[in-house]
């Protein structure tokens, strides 16, 4: 995947905290995207991973506006949840080329998202201290 990011996703914003951009999107540290222009906004609402390997051939994502907006075919986004159960954001990756995601790869990314959630939870403290 030629674009990967850890994003902070709130009720009002999507912010790139860390990323690798070899697609040339021109992402900058702490750059924000319009929340409604992201699939991460949907993940924030339902807290489920979204994974597809070929948007233009996918029953749901072939007509979804976000892949067309950014020009990507393959996409993987895993929610980052703190140990206290708070939604923090997403670990996401995308590419302009279709990809086949192995079960092992998906498990690895899910594990990384859990680890990030644990680290973030430790930094943020208890929910009532945020």
UniProtKB/TrEMBL annotation:
- InterPro entries membership: GAF, GAF-like_dom_sf
The record places domain GAF at: 36-118
Q: Which domain of life is it from?
A: Bacteria
Protein name (database record): GAF domain-containing protein
């Amino acid at each position: 995947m030629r674009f990967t990011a850890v994003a902070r996703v709130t009720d009002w914003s999507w912010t790139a905290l860390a990323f690798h951009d070899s697609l040339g999107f021109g992402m900058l540290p702490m750059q924000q995207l319009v929340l409604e222009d992201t699939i991460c906004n949907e993940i924030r609402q339902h807290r489920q991973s979204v994974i597809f390997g070929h948007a233009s051939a996918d029953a749901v994502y072939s007509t979804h506006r976000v892949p067309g907006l950014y020009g990507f075919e393959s996409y993987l986004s895993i929610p980052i949840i703190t140990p206290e159960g708070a939604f923090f954001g997403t670990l996401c990756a995308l590419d302009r080329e279709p990809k086949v995601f192995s079960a092992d790869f998906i498990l690895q990314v899910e594990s990384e998202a859990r680890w990030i959630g644990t680290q973030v939870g430790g930094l943020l403290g208890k929910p009532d201290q945020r």
